[in-house]
Write a structure and sequence with these properties.
By secondary structure, this protein is an alpha+beta fold. It has 2 domains: 160 residues, Ribosomal Protein S5, domain 2 (2-Layer Sandwich); 124 residues, GHMP kinase, C-terminal domain (Alpha-Beta Plaits). Helices cover 34% and strands 28% of the residues. It has 10 helices and 12 strands. Strand 5 and strand 6 form a beta hairpin. Helix 1 runs parallel beside helix 2 and helix 2 crosses helix 3. The chain is globular, with a radius of gyration of 19 Å. Bound molecules: adenosine-5'-triphosphate.
Length: 303
């Protein structure tokens, strides 16, 4: 069947723990992380066209003007990569509608890359095997394979090697966004500067965190959350420390910076608790506050 359009929805990711090792020979840092996909989404619509084009819109709180509209956009790179892989022309009009903060440490760009891979694969009727799609995703960026997979997963390598993890129950997250994003490379540079020439130990995933996820124990998970990039992100944005403390004072079970920041995450016991913590945090006027459950599925065709 020739389709006139395909719509794919892809979720934001958070890192329940983010263990960062030393820089590798290829410049990337070795990671040991536990990803979780949460219910904040970008939507990508693709349509047949002559050549490629891109348009970007977004929720009013999203700074879409910071999203590149040229070939550096990861959605365009995804379409070009998939077309080249199959030796076909990248004839597609791509429309991104963003609900995931830009440069917020929640992998919105990666979600768009994964969504575009899946959308173009469906539009062009390619039926690329899942393993091949995951490999192409890994070429686009470290977080893109997870955006395809979704759920909760362990990430190793530079984050692109993903293995689904066993979890029980649902977790509710309050997300505090910042008005100005943080550049991921800048946070890694700060991380390197803080460690100096000392060897960085190999990153590990705490047993307590995996155990808490297996049991669905929110309180234990709150205590086990960890992020090796947090000290570097806090050096660049010291005011976030107060934001994390406010969340804990407002009864969140755990608080941490999402990935390279600056979004802050607060773990809650359920939806009602998330509503309560989100409204209390909104009162501090630190930035836009939302809440979402996890884990949710990865990129999927919704229309
Ligand atoms: P990371 O995945 O590195 O943690 P992030 O979640 O902090 O990134 P993203 O929203 O993914 O941030 O964007 C990081 C940068 O990538 C942006 O500042 C922007 O310049 C560029 N970019 C390229 N394509 C996209 C896209 N489709 N959406 C958002 N940003 C994009």
């Amino acid at each position: 069947m020739i389709r006139s359009s395909v719509v794919v929805s892809a979720p934001a990711k958070i890192n329940l723990c983010l263990g960062v090792g030393g820089a590798r020979d290829d410049g990337f840092h070795a990671l040991a992380t536990v990803y979780q996909a949460i219910g904040l989404y970008d939507q990508v619509t693709v349509r047949p066209a002559d050549g490629w084009s891109l348009s970007v819109t977004g929720h009013e709180r999203i700074q879409v003007e910071q999203v590149p509209a040229d070939e550096s956009n990861i959605a365009v790179r995804a379409a070009l990569l998939l077309a080249a892989h199959h030796g076909i022309d990248p004839d597609v009009a791509i429309a991104i509608d963003k609900g995931i903060p830009v440069a917020g440490g929640m992998a919105g760009g990666s979600a768009d890359g994964a969504a575009t891979l899946l959308a173009c694969d469906t539009l062009w009727g390619l039926r690329t095997p899942r393993g091949e799609l995951l490999e192409l995703a890994g070429e686009l960026g470290s977080d893109v394979p997870f955006a395809l997979l979704g759920g909760t997963a362990i990430g190793t390598g530079r984050g692109e090697v993903v293995t689904p993890a066993m979890t029980r129950g649902e977790y509710w997250w309050v997300v505090l966004e910042a008005d100005v994003g943080l550049s991921t490379p800048a946070v890694y540079r700060e991380f390197d500067a803080m460690h100096g020439p000392r060897a960085v130990p190999d990153p590990v995933i705490p047993d307590a965190l995996m155990e808490a996820l297996r049991r669905g124990d929110v309180e234990a998970l709150g205590e086990a959350l960890c992020n090796d990039l947090q000290p570097a992100a806090l050096r660049l944005r010291p005011e976030l420390q107060r934001a994390l403390e406010h969340g804990l004072e407002e009864t969140a079970f755990g608080a941490l910076i999402s990935g390279s920041g600056p979004s802050c995450l607060f773990l809650c016991e359920g939806r009602a608790h998330a509503v309560q913590v989100a409204s209390a945090l909104s009162g501090h006027q630190l930035g836009p506050v939302s809440f979402a459950p996890g884990p949710v599925p990865g990129a999927r065709v919704v229309g």
